[in-house]
Amino acid sequence: MSARADARSVSWFTIVGAAAALVHYLSAIVLEGWLAFSPGLANFLAFLLAFPVSYIGHHALSFAGSGNTHGYALPRFLLVACAGFAGNQILLLSLLRFSQLPFWLALAAVMVAVAASTYLLSRFWAFKKGA
Q1: Of 20-29, 57-66, 104-113, which range is least confident?
Q2: Sign of the CA dihedral 77, 83, 87, 92?
Q3: DSSP secondary-structure letter at 72?
């Protein structure tokens, strides 16, 4: 992949990732803060709401040049997303248990920390060109 294509991929990944993260974050905040769901359940349900935004956006925009079908990319991306969510959930619940951080701040910190690893796994495995 050329440097220009890499820059385009990173740009779209950032935009799509930010949109999915916003859906996840706002959904979790509403579910936990306003509807009194437990932090773990709110985070899980928010992940489920954000996943389609993330997958569709990344397949259509971030990694459009890969030429991979949904049958190939979706299971791989789902695995990457679930691994990212598992890390997210473990870190979030640990922060909430062992610190005094409020839910909204702990979730924001965890989401930022997990985003980079999700990009790398998506770029170099889930949407790897020619696989």
Answers
A1: 57-66
A2: positive
A3: H
Check: CB of residue 54 under 8 Å from CB of residue 17.
yes
Q: What type of residue sits at position 81?
A: A
**Token pair for residue 110?**
């965890």
Give percent helix, percent strand, percent coil of the chain, each to the nearest 5: 85, 0, 15
Amino acid at 25: Y
| Residue 127 burial (10 A CB sphere; 0-12, 13-18, 19+) | buried
Rounded to 10 degrees, the C-alpha dihedral 17/90/82/84 comes to: 40
> Mean pLDDT across the chain, nearest whole number?
88
Distance CA 87, CA 24 (A): 15
Ramachandran assignment for 2, one of left (phi > 0), alpha (psi -120 to 50 degrees), beta (any other) = beta
- Please work out, in degrees rounded to the nearest 5, the angle formed at the alpha carbon of residue 130 by the alpha carbons of 128 and 131: 65
Of 59, 5, 49, the closest CA to residue 28 belongs to 49
Q: Which residue type, as a one-letter code, is found at position 82?
A: C
DSSP structural state of residue 102: -
The 10s digit of each residue's pLDDT in 51-63 is: 999 999 988 887 7
